[in-house]
Amino acid sequence: MTANEAAAAILADLADTAAAREALYKDLHRHPELSMEEHRTSGVIADELARIGVEDIAIGVTGRVGVIRNGDGPVVAMRADFDALPMDEESGVDYASVNPGVAHSCGHDVHVTALLGAVEQLNEHRDAWSGTFLAIFQPGEEAGAGARDMVDAGIVDKLPKPDVALAQHVLGTVPGGAVGTRRGPVLTTASSIEITVHGAGTHGSMPNLGVDPIVLGAAIVGRLQTIVSREVAPTDTAVVTVGSFHGGTKSNIIPDSVTLLVNTRAYDTDVAQRLHAAIERIVRAECDAARSPKAPDFRYYDQYPLTINDDAVTDRVRAAFDGYFGDDSVDMPAAPASEDFSIIPDAFGTPYCYWGLGGFADMESAPGNHSPKFAPDIQPTLDRGAQAIVVAACAWLAADWPVKPAGR
Predict the structure, then answer these.
(1) 168-209: per-residue pLDDT in tens?
(2) Structure pTM?
(3) Residues 62, 38 contacting (CB under 8 angstroms)
(4) On the chain, which terminus has fewer CB atoms closer than 10 Å, C or N?
(5) Which residue numbers delimit the Peptidase M20 dimerisation domain (predicted)?
(6) How far apart are CA 218 and CA 346, in angstroms?
(7) Which is nearest to 122 in space by CA: 398, 326, 384?
(8) d(CA 58, CA 193)
(9) Is the peptide bond before 213 cis (omega within 30 degrees of 0)?
(10) What is the three-state SS of the chain?
(11) Could you give the percent of the chain with pLDDT greater than 90?
């Protein structure tokens, strides 16, 4: 039996659980929770693992891992994140969020439902594969905190080391019902930077008696735009965004300070470091030019590593997808979004593959992730998500062993 034949056997009765999985998904979608506060969701996951009959290990604040130990063989880890976003939902679906100001507008509820579906199929069909499957349910992805929390809580010591780690994300940029793979960098490294520049407050009618941080901040915003256009090579990709500019309380008061919130993205860690160095250099120089009374303050937060797929692992996943899904196995474009998934496999020293799951039949009008209107088609998305996990996992769990994926 080939790996894809094993996957087909494992998935043969997936339709029998469709109604239950769709009900679970709607429940998760109705009850979103913010990063590192996902206690209800974590409890639902624990209840589902208990119902399926799978070992459940709590790790960190709300993280959980379902473990299926099924004899000798490789160890495959699959990650699903489960936090939501601080925003109102405008999807119009009848199972929309009942929690004001919180919404599953990124699809993490799809990820959880798909992974639980895969866990149930793998557990029910142990005769078709051999090894260990780790279902990692990770909180706090939207805050860049959940993967680090699980690592800090000892995930490396509490679980067997995976031979390969896998993850997927539902997207509107991959055709509905398709799975998209990509070698190498797939998601950017990212950082948010809070920058406070200082002036000297005075009456708006007497600007000569103070130092105006509003003018200083405006000069900084304009100058930061030159970093990508004039300091990053045309062959590289980078983004510098000023997403917030806050200062002052009244039109005739020059304030003491202004705070800027800046976000950077890059597909290369060296480029990211150059962006940060350029930002600090420009801000300090503009402060000197404006006679700022003290040095600017910099605070880095919400930092995400580069997500870079291992070539050998990705080739193996793609071959499995091609064989099982045919034309629904496609290339995934690189995305200037960011993830903290890689923190966990990097802590283990494990190579990984992260792929895209198409969530909308109508790609032309598909809302982007984090849109208040984001609500993927329930089917075939939930089925395809569970199928993709089983097919990718079987490329190891139902294949000849040992397999030695290339190191990163």
Answers:
(1) 999 999 999 999 999 999 999 999 999 999 999 999 999 999
(2) 0.91
(3) yes
(4) N
(5) 191-287
(6) 40
(7) 398
(8) 32
(9) no
(10) CCHHHHHHHHHCCHHHHHHHHHHHHHHHHHCCCCCCCCHHHHHHHHHHHHHHCCEEEEECCCEEEEEEEECCCCEEEEEEECCCECCCCCCCCCCCCCCCCCECCCCHHHHHHHHHHHHHHHHHCHHHCCEEEEEEEECCHHHCCHHHHHHHCCHHHHCCCCCEEEEEEEEEEEECCCEEECCEEEECEEEEEEEEEECECEECCCHHHCECHHHHHHHHHHHHHHHHHHHCCCCCCEEEEEEEEECCCCCCEECCEEEEEEEEEECCHHHHHHHHHHHHHHHHHHHHHCCCCCCCEEEEEEEECCEEECHHHHHHHHHHHHHHHHHHEEECCCECCCCCCCHHHHHHCCCEEEEEEEEECCHHHCCCCCCCCCCCCCCCHHHHHHHHHHHHHHHHHCCCCCCCCCCC
(11) 96
pLDDT value for 404: 42
- Number of neighbouring beta carbons within 10 Å of residue 402: 9
- For residue 28 the two structure tokens come to 């998760």
pLDDT at 95 > cutoff 60: yes
